[in-house]
Amino acid sequence: MSVRVGEAASAPDFPVAAKQLMQNEQLRRNVRNATGIIRNKRASVVGETPDWQPLRDAAHAIKDHTLRYLDRYLIQFEENCKRAGGIVHWARDADEANNIAIGIVQAQSATEVIKVKTMTTDEIGMNRALEASGITPYETDLADLIVQLGHDKPSHIVVPALHRNKMEIRELFMRTMGLAELGTRPEDIAEAARIYLREKFLRVPVAVSGANFAVAETGSVCVVESEGNGRMCVSLPRVLISVVGIEKIIPKFADLEVFLQLLSRSATGERMNPYNSIWSGVAAGDGPVEFHVILLDNGRTNVLADAVSRETLDCIRCGACLNACPVYRQTGGHAYGSIYAGPIGAILTPQLQSMEHSQTLPYASSLCGACYEVCPVKINIPEILIHLRNKLVESGDVPTSERMGMKAAAWAMSDAANLSTARYFGRIGQKAFTNNGVIHHLPGMMSAWTATRDMPAIPPESFRQWWAKRAQEKR
Amino acid sequence: MLISLFITCYNDALYPKTGQAVVTVLERLGHTVEFRAAQTCCGQMHYNNGYRAEAFSLMEKFLDDYRDAGVICIPSASCVAMIREHYPVLAAQSGNPAIVAQVNSLVPRVFEFSELLVDKLGVEDTGAFFPHVVTLHASCHSLRSLQVGDKPERLLRNVQGLTYIPLEDADQCCGFGGTFAVKNADVSSAMVADKARCIRNTNAEVCAALDNSCLLQIGGMLSRMEMGTRTMHLAEILAATSPGVRP
Fold first, then answer.
1. Interface mutation target, options A368, A411, A425, A450, chain B, most CBs of B under 10 Å
2. Could you tell me if A135 and A275 lie in one domain?
3. How far is C-alpha B63 from the geometric centre of its chain's CA atoms?
4. Looking at the complex, does the CB of residue A421 fall below 8 Å from at least one CB of chain B?
5. What percent of chain B is modeled with pLDDT above 70?
6. Residue % of chain A over a pLDDT of 90
7. In terms of Cα–Cα distance, which of B52, B57, B181, B77 is closest to A413?
8. Model confidence at A184: pLDDT above 50
């Protein structure tokens, strides 16, 4: 089995990528601006929902239950999807899923596909696999189109081109669509995309989608999107292929009531999502005549096997944790080296890859808890980050200097006398660096601190020394 | 009331004035403070970095050190969060019913300093006098784990002479995060630079907090930027009095 999460396995370490990206002031302004707008919209629609916390609890409980009985619900989904006229495939990893999709496209003698916004096909690198087989994929989601035309990478789960501003997009469209003129209003830019895409919707015979939810009870697939381009993709072509991560299963159709309330408010700050497409198999004279579902594992069962971090698979890809994260808002999504950025990416990407790659991601957080606070399905991201750090410590995948430092600290803390000894040597060690009780420069690992921040020197008297002295004076 | 002070490892070494201030305030309010000399550290650093075995040992030590203590006051929200949120996790993982029972007995006895004053002792006016302009940094642990709400603010607003200016983007992390500040120094620095900008906009003389760990980060940046704003633990402000003001 070869689990692949985009190009995450070969991505640079988070601190290295972050440092480089943070030098791009335009990018930082774009990210800050966009996340700020979505955060405010989310806060306002969440604030007016009186049962928000019970909804979160319900979603968490449904997901928890589903993951416990995932084997049964997957089989149930397969049966009901087949019964409705769908064809269900099972893919262990990225290559299997891509090969199944390529086989379906080639059986149609097609050379082009249109795509609905889907993270999952980015995860398995489907576009590249299709191109290698002589098939041209066209992204139809506006943001994905921007990313594709710019040979760029998505930087946000919900808003993949969040790092681009209007004028950058206008320039990109003029260049790649061969437009001599284009207005500067958002409507002008959207119109250019509309003209470019309409022709493809009407011509291309095969569409590829992901899924937000797959309902076991009915065999239905649900895709939510804001533009209507997804609706065109799932209804106009002859053949539709939906790539569905196995964690997208929910037991009952009625469960959508919970998730659709949470998702739209968390993702875009809307009370209701504009286009909610839900279909079950095929229907004569209406929509595609051939419908395939590819159920994808690609490392998800690795995550499922860990009882502590299993709830990572609860994620409904709303992106609220990205918008809330003070780290993401400084770096943007590309620093995470994965199509899954932000706090959820920091826990999902390494786990999908069995903790063998992306090992700096569990440390890309100050553990401030803003992600957990906004998560609509109550994934305790900070606790899982700590759990993953523990896994790395136990497998020996941490720097020796850190291990030594932590051992030394454990010794110092194991006994009050040791702590006083450590403090004594700290006082001696700091002498060369202290100026008026302030340290402006430290060597080694701590130079990373003093590069931008001062440090107070250890004062002559500790609290416990003061306390002991006072006790003596009192006597 | 007899109150046992857990000073925390970093306050003991780096911020003794905070501990002295806690003693001053509690004694001024008529309480007796004890300090158990065997105490060291709650284990938060080890826990947060994934050194679970070491964190467990430190938890066992804490349980031993405070087995027979009554009310325990900790002038650090993040250390209280460690005990309240993570000790139960460590205890459950150990599968040892005796440890679980000890943690269950410990947790309700532990109070962060502002919680102790407002919730346990029912005090909002500590009789302090501090004629300065002050803003408050709400640490992530105090905000999200302890949910202290406006308790620290209420304590500050009751200080005579004090002008309180709220901080914009108060729910934003200062970027400390323990080893995060070193492992991801560039991001951490950018986060605290944002925080410093917000503090500058208040024109406050002092930035207060419940956590000296945040203030290590914020103070380090303010000092480097030579902004002239000091950082002080809330207890140090509440400890301040002047002659003529009632004790």
1. A368
2. yes
3. 20
4. no
5. 98
6. 96
7. B57
8. yes
Q: Which one, of A470, A464, A450, lies nearest residue A421 by Cα?
A: A464
**Residue pLDDT, tens place only, B159-210:** 999 999 999 999 999 999 999 999 999 999 999 999 999 999 999 999 999 9
Contact A322, A156 (CB under 8 A): yes
Task: ipTM value, please give it.
Answer: 0.96
Q: Which of A453, A462, A466 to mutate to test the interface with B (most CBs of B within 10 A)?
A: A453
Cα A445–Cα A450–Cα A452 angle in degrees, nearest 5: 125
- Distance CA(A86)–CA(A290), nearest Å, equals 7
Looking at domain B2-120, does it have CATH number 1.20.1050?
yes
In a domain, A312, yes or no: no
Mark which of A273, A301, A329 sits at the end of a domain: A301
Quote the DSSP letter at residue A363: G
Contact A419 B190 (CB under 8 A): no
* Domain interval for residue A457: 400-474
CATH code of the domain in which A257 resides = 3.40.50.10420
User: Residue holding tokens 């500067």?
Assistant: A184
Domain boundaries, chain B: 2-120, 133-239
Please calculate the CA angle B155-B158-B161 and round it to the nearest 5 degrees.
125
Sorted by sequence, the CB contacts under 8 Å of residue A216 that are 6+ apart come out as A73, A74, A76, A77, A80, A249, A250, A251, A252
Q: What is the pLDDT of residue B246?
A: 44
Bridge-based pairing of strands A220-225 and A249-250 is: unpaired
CB atoms within 10 A of CB A43: 13
CB pairs A-B closer than 8 Å: 185
A20 lies in some domain: no
Query: Chain A closest CA to B159's CA: distance in Å?
Result: 25
**How many C-beta atoms lie closer than 10 Å to residue A308's C-beta?**
16
**Shortest CA gap A135–chain B (Å):** 41
Q: How many domains does chain A have?
A: 2
Residues A69 and A217 in one domain: yes
Nearest-Cα residue of chain A relative to residue B185: A448
Domain finish residue from A277, A301, A325 = A301
Option in A326, A406, A462 nearest B173 (CB): A326
Q: Compute CA A221 distance to the chain's CA centroid, rounded to the nearest angstrom.
A: 21
If DSSP codes are grouped into helix, strand and coil, which group holds residue A87? Answer: strand
Does residue A310 belong to any structural domain of this protein? no
Looking at the fold, whether A207 and A82 belong to one and the same domain comes out as: yes
A414/B172 touch (CB, cutoff 8 Å), yes or no: no
Chain B neighbors of A383, CB-CB under 8 A: 89
* Residue B211 confidence (pLDDT) above 80: yes
For chain A, what's the residue count?
475
What topology is assigned to B133-239 in CATH?
Rossmann fold (3.40.50)
Please tell me the distance from the alpha carbon of residue A59 to that of residue A46, in angstroms, as a whole number: 15
